[in-house]
Design brief:
Shape: elongated
Structural class: alpha+beta
Order of helices and strands: EEEEHEHHEHHEEEEEH
Largest sheet: 5 strands, antiparallel
Radius of gyration: 25 Å
Oligomer: single chain
Distance between the termini: 65 Å
Length: 260
């Protein structure tokens, strides 16, 4: 069982071909599954802050691996892996699922009770605008963040096109798959919708080779993501906040007049 911040992967010993330790200061554990696909497709990587723990775990795991014949080694180990996604840390479920809608309803009730019709009209648009902005924030933030990381500390290597389309078991939505070797000598893969040539320059993050992109597309991806944040996400959030402030101002005006 390998646990990360996002998911838990349960990998039977019978699905493992070998275990490798690498990465910066030996903090990366690579579990290579059995099967006919390239190592990069069958590889599960996990990074830990404790290199000693990684080495001990790898040593124990190697001793526990069974001895198998050629037929067992050729079986697809990826079909035996169970992936269980974990809920991302954030606001407690009570506050996320109950507090926000309850607050919205209470403010709306107060606006209607005080006959603040303009404020009530503005308040209706707040969850739609803010909700849409938050939902689209990850769409634009991911290419901006990864593009900046690759521009600052990325390493460029040559990648060879392996296959395309649904042939790649690691990502059925990947149109192109390029294999490359990182600075530690490990075989890694770029999977994405960009590509087409037999050889491409791949830029990757040496701290996390899973963050990679075609070198000729990295700047464009960064610019597109930044433009999306500035032209779509930021206006949605800004309009949502503005409508909310207008609604609250209308409500506070009524309250102040009543007090006076």
């Amino acid at each position: 069982m390998l646990r990360s911040r996002k998911e838990v992967r349960r990998i039977p010993l019978t699905a493992i071909e070998r275990v490798e330790v690498g990465g910066f200061r030996g903090r990366t554990l690579a579990v290579i599954l059995t099967g006919p696909e390239p190592d990069a497709v069958r590889e599960h990587r996990f990074v830990s802050l404790r290199p000693a723990a990684v080495k001990r775990f790898a040593a124990v795991l190697r001793e526990a691996l069974p001895v198998r014949d050629g037929a067992e080694m050729g079986a697809a180990g990826s079909s035996m892996v169970i992936v269980e996604p974990l809920e991302r840390p954030g606001l407690p479920a009570l506050r996320r699922d109950v507090f926000v809608p309850v607050t919205f309803c209470l403010v709306m009730a107060a606006l209607l009770a005080t006959r603040s019709w303009i404020g009530a009209f503005c308040w209706v648009f707040v969850p739609m605008l803010v909700g849409a902005g938050i939902s689209l924030l990850e769409v634009g933030w991911k290419p901006v963040r990864e593009g900046w990381i690759l521009a600052v500390r990325g390493v460029t290597v040559d990648g060879q096109r392996k296959n395309s389309g649904s042939v790649d078991a690691g990502d059925p939505d990947a149109l192109y798959v390029y294999l490359f070797t990182d600075a530690e000598g490990a075989l890694c893969a770029y999977r994405g919708t960009n590509g087409g040539r037999d050889e491409e320059e791949i830029v990757y993050d040496p701290r996390n080779p899973g963050v990679n992109q075609l070198r000729r597309r990295n700047a464009a991806q960064f610019v597109i993501g930044l433009a999306f944040l500035l032209t779509v996400v930021l206006p949605l959030l800004g309009c949502g906040v503005a409508f909310g402030l207008m609604a609250l101002a209308d409500l506070l005006d009524f309250v102040s007049l009543t007090v006076l």
